[in-house]
Amino acid sequence: MSTPQDIAPTPWQEQDRVRAVQKRTVRILSAAQIVGGVGVGVSVSVGPLLAESVAQSETYAGLARTATTAGAALVGIPLALLAQRRGRRTSLGAGWLVAAAGGGLLIASAVSRSIPLLIVGMLLFGVGSATNQQSRYAAADLAAPHRRAHALSIVLWSTTIGSVIGPNLADPGAAVASALHLPRLAGAFVLATVCTAAASALLWGLMRPDPLTLSRRYQDADAPVDKDTGIPAAQDETGGQKKKDRQNGTVRAGLRHLRRTPQAAFAFVTIVVAHTVMAAVMTMTPVDMSDHGHGLTVVGVTISGHLLGMYAFSPLVGRLSDRIGHMPTIVAGQTVFLVSAALSGMGHGSVGMMMAGLFLLGLGWSFSLVAGSAMLSETTPLALLPGVQGTTDTAMNVVAAVGAGLAGPLMGWAGFGALNAVAAVLVLPVLAFWAVLVRAR
User: Fold this and answer.
1) Within 13 Å and on the Cβ side, how many CA atoms surround 430?
2) 10-214 domain in CATH 3.40.50.10140?
3) Using one digit for the tens of pLDDT, what is the confidence trace for 182-219?
4) Which residues contact 251 (CB under 8 A, 6 or more apart)?
5) pLDDT tens digit string along 356-404?
6) What is the spatial distance between Cα 60 and Cα 67, in angstroms, rounded to a whole number?
7) Element of type H or E holding 22
8) Are 320 and 5 in contact (CB under 8 A)?
9) DSSP state of 141
10) Non-local CB neighbours of 127 within 8 Å, separated by 6+ positions
11) Which CATH superfamily is domain 250-441 in?
């Protein structure tokens, strides 16, 4: 299979104006990721505490995480279909706005002690996670093939800032709550609501022209060109997309494409497996470390190292993927996963081995998600792209939620080492799929 450097960009992708719009788009997406990601990060640490406080039950602490994950899974495809019809600006802007509405409901639930408001608020707030994830695809819409993974990885890297700041907003939020005469935990969600609303405003106000609709205009060879701007004129409200293309951009058509295109299916499987492996092992690592007597500080440092592996090196991973090819980068990621499973599984309570294993778990996820997402964009026709991307993210969230849910009983029955062994086994189908594709070349 050719590397991205071997794929010649179409002439419009190298136009100065398109490259300028692409750079601006990546900057705006990154800014929205930082601001919105801070809001999403609140739900990780403060969400369960708020749920427990409202419901006066520890059971609801777990329900908060489940509802947020369910919200992200439920809207993956609807957000993609909205992008298909109205463009990325509308889809992502609306996603962050819905998350802000969810934050408002969570504030109301804290004041009224309403469990229904709590659950609905968590579901809506989960839309922010789905929006956060789908933003990476928007960075690739106008990118030339040899820069696609790097553009995507820059937006993914921006998530690092939000993931670090967001979980630490409990104390600043308490000060806000005191000033507004709200329950203590509601203050963090006041900040989260402001952040997600600001992310929506950034995208609605500044991401013009829309990267997806602009790429459609350029790919329509018959579109008339505006003499003043040099941009092919839009033929309808979708940015020049023909009615037949809109009909082809359905979930069913996307699934047919995945069945018929081995490279796209490989990218799909890579993303889903990587997210499942990461979620299952990461979820139970703090429990195992606690069982071995390690305190919250050590656990926190270990999780921070894991997040560092997930996001901090993604620009380097993107450049590597653009240089050597997406498939070799994916295979490298699976190798990292196997080393991670070996270190964590045989750590037996060793802090050093656990830290190294969880860091590599995040790094393997970064290799797989960056290269897999770029490969999915590269191997999918533009008319099908949003639907295929939304289907992939929905599957990623649903399967990972199931994997994380099963990880607890598995560890309780057979131990943390067995959980990592199962994680290593899950990687093998990706490597087998790769071997089949290489053999078929």
Assistant:
1) 30
2) no
3) 998 899 899 999 999 999 999 999 999 999 999 888 87
4) 77, 81, 387, 390, 391
5) 999 999 999 999 999 999 999 999 988 888 889 999 999 998 888 888 7
6) 10
7) helix 16-55
8) no
9) S
10) 71, 72, 75, 79, 95, 98, 99, 102
11) MFS general substrate transporter like domains (1.20.1250.20)
